[in-house]
Description:
This protein has helices at residues 9-29, 36-43, 47-54, 57-77, 86-101, 104-116, 121-149, 157-169, 172-178, 186-203. By secondary structure, it is mainly alpha-helical. The termini are far apart.
Amino acid sequence: MSETRNIDPRTMKRREALIDAARELFCEHGLSGTTLEMITAEAGGSRRTIYELFGNKDGVFEAVIRDCTGRVVAVMADLELSQMPLRAALIHFGETLMTLLTTPETIRYMRLFLSEVPRFPHLGKVFYESGLMSGRRIITSYFERQMNEGTFPKGDPKQAAVFFTSLLKADYDFRQMTYVGWEPHAKDLHAHVIAAVDMFLRGYGIDPATVDQEVPVQS
């Protein structure tokens, strides 16, 4: 994928238009069923513009993946967790993440990306690294800070992040991807996140009823 740091504003606007058009076309026709001509007909520009900005159609698809996952990661990165008590911060993180992951738009893109992985394995790695791993690094850093501050038991922050996000996700994303049209209600999602957070805390020997009383945990 081409670097975007040195692209002038006009070209950047054209690039964004191409990504927006390509995203919808890929969702409707798949990667193999979408042509460069279809993308330029929808967004304007030319094949030459696509070659200059993305290299080829695979480059456009990679840019679409990074754009979609980047939007989710940007929301998560903006969360002000450090100013909140531990349990409240984890609930806030969990509700934000699960709300983003279970929107019809997100599920639509996940179906698209995963359907192309067998034919384009390197794009699967892009999806994994720019999406799941980027989000996991955010919560990993949070756990690392809490361990250093004595509000969470010392241990492996990466492992804590894996356990926590796994409890949060449960089968929600897979169920939505297979049960077409099924969507969790906000009330149920809220209850699930609280149950997952409390189960996670108990697994680390923390009583959810007392954790936010600002008493340092024992290492």
